[in-house]
Design brief:
By secondary structure, the chain is an alpha/beta fold. The chain contains four helices and five strands, in the order αβαββαββα.
Length: 164
């Protein structure tokens, strides 16, 4: 008796079915990458907002780096540069030195621009003016923490007297 040898049956693959499978796999891959990307974006947004809440709770703590501009409101040439040099030597980030809108400012004052008055108070203390001369003018379009406006009383302040 002879054994019947079975031929292995090879499945007949339809070219059309394999093409559809290939495209379905590509679509699944693209959707998986999109879902991962959106999940990561959502994670970053959540972490970013929680960081802002932490900053909002620390309004009475000065920032590590305080960015400010120094504005000459007294009209005396070179005063803003002297204050800028002094503040930079005391680890403040002075990003701009300019003239104030007028030269008739009698007393030097500090403007809090972002709502963290502790930053403005730290600048006031560094140059030797009292806390009563710190005001708030919040503006979301202003990218500085603090503005310093130098008045005609500049000669009494630490950058000129040399006091620390």
């Amino acid at each position: 008796m002879k054994k019947k040898v079975r031929k292995k049956s090879t499945p007949v693959t339809n070219v059309k079915d394999s093409t559809y499978n290939f495209f379905y796999n590509i679509i699944i891959f693209i959707l998986a990458v999109l879902i991962i990307y959106l999940g990561y974006s959502a994670y970053l947004k959540i972490m970013h907002f929680s960081g802002k809440e932490e900053i909002a709770h620390n309004k009475n703590v000065p920032s590590e780096i305080i960015q400010l501009d120094v504005l000459n409101g007294c009209g005396v040439s070179g005063v803003a540069d002297r204050f800028t040099d002094y503040l930079r030597a005391h680890n403040f980030d002075v990003v701009q030195t300019d003239n104030y809108i007028s030269f008739d400012v009698d007393e030097t004052f500090v403007i809090d621009r972002i709502g963290n008055k502790a930053n403005a108070l730290k600048v006031a203390k560094a140059i030797g003016i009292e806390n009563a001369k710190v005001i708030q003018q919040l503006n979301e379009n202003y990218f500085l923490d603090v503005s310093l406006v130098i008045g005609k009383d500049y000669y009494k302040l630490k950058p000129i007297t040399g006091g620390d």
